[in-house]
């Protein structure tokens, strides 16, 4: 998760492991870091993740419950989409990516392209 800092990544790992939306306190209790964290630090990280579109929150009384805005794979794909869309030369980005792709990655891309052709 190159777009996230170390603490943000640790918090996202907690959200991805959670089966239900969690409170800040739940995240604080579950996150593993090298140092003790303050409640307000975790709250700030969750607010930042919400603002960035990585986490979704819903009101629960006076507090919020947080959950991941998608699976790790979905959010990674959205991040790649943003990189491509914000590039001044998206065609070159895709070309360089395709040239660097492994045989397995190329196989997956071909399969998806074939599926799209058959749907058209």
Automatic annotation (TrEMBL):
GO terms for molecular function: DNA binding. The keyword Magnesium does not apply. The lineage of its organism: Bacteria, Bacillati, Actinomycetota, Actinomycetes, Micromonosporales. InterPro entries: BlaI_family, WH-like_DNA-bd_sf, WH_DNA-bd_sf. GO terms for biological process: negative regulation of DNA-templated transcription. Belongs to the BlaI transcriptional regulatory family. Keywords: DNA-binding, Transcription, Transcription regulation. Transmembrane segments: none annotated. It comes from Micromonospora aurantiaca (nom. illeg.). This is BlaI/MecI/CopY family transcriptional regulator.
């Amino acid at each position: 998760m190159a777009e996230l800092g170390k603490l943000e990544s640790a918090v996202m790992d907690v959200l991805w492991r959670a089966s239900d939306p969690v409170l800040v306190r739940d995240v604080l209790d579950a996150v593993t870091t090298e140092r003790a964290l303050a409640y307000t630090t975790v709250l700030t990280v969750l607010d930042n993740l919400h603002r960035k579109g990585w986490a979704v929150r819903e009101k629960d009384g006076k507090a919020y419950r947080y959950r991941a805005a998608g699976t790790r794979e979905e959010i990674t794909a959205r991040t790649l989409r943003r990189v491509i869309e914000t590039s001044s030369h998206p065609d070159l980005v895709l070309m360089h990516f395709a040239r660097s792709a492994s045989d397995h990655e190329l196989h997956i891309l071909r399969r998806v392209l074939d599926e799209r052709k058959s749907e058209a």
